[in-house]
What does this fold into?
Amino acid sequence: MNEWRLDASEAAAFGRVAVIMGGRSAEREISLRSGAEVLRGLQAAGVDAFAVDLAADGRDPVAQLLQADFDRAFLILHGRGGEDGTIQGLLEMMHKPYTGSGVCASALGMDKLRCKLLWQGAGLPTPAFAVLDEGADLGAVEARLGYPIMVKPAHEGSSIGMSKVRTRAELEAAFAQATAYDSSVIAEQWVDGPEFTVAVLGHETLPVIRLETPHDFYDFTAKYEAADTAYHFRTALSPEQTESLQQLVQQAFKIAGCHGWGRVDVMMDANGQFQLLEVNTAPGMTDHSLVPMAAREAGISFSQLVVEILRTTGERE
Ligand SMILES: Nc1ncnc2c1ncn2[C@@H]1O[C@H](COP(=O)(O)OP(=O)(O)O)[C@@H](O)[C@H]1O
Ligand SMILES: [Mg+2]
It folds into this structure.
């Protein structure tokens, strides 16, 4: 199916590529699915790639990496312990080039609270929010944000531990639920949408995708299981709105210090203003994932996409 291949000398120049997947996070299974696709795509392009299933069978990930024989890494770990700067730091110490963002931007991408603070500080729009902790004055939170409110663990992905709440009782229950995943929890002002996601590849943005789900929001089921989630390239945005969305995404990416590739989730509020939700520094790469979908729309095959990502290895600002 995929006939695109790299020139043999170019493929050889990448050396041996470890596709690092799995890990211990709540998103391990998704990472394994993404990793299998990335491996297949690189091999189909002629790259000498092999899989490293990090923390498989309780193995020590540090020992695994130190023992592996590779020249560069394609990082496709999702969530904590992989997408959050820790593996990036280890690879820096090992002098091994790797795909995607560096230590600081990866850590920020995994911390919704601090990333929002950074964007706010830079004057970029992101929904109003409050930190929920043991001493939080929930009355003040609901008065300031107004219902509905989105409650989310600050460091999770895949919509894990998130709830839309409409009452104080629901707010308390959602806070308790999110706390089970993370000690840092935020309450965010609800944004009605529509919702968009924009992939970044190198210095370019890929075509904007508008997401539509009959669920309350793009939750875990809508992301990975439901057949009723719709992905539109006909976004209903004007060319000017598309341009300003793409510029916002580029700014958000740059201010967080991201590199190589990623995906920024954005919603439009009732005033037509775009609001930044989060940046994903190692987004999903399964056959149903958004980045490959956007690449396809731009005429970039999966193999070309993974090779383009591999080309952005190293050389961070
Ligand atoms: N403030 C919000 N208002 C409305 N929906 C939201 C809000 N924040 C998140 N969502 C919904 O929840 C989904 C997941 O949120 P997001 O912040 O992207 O976290 P995750 O890391 O889990 O993808 C979004 O794709 C969107 O559908
Ligand atoms: Mg998201």
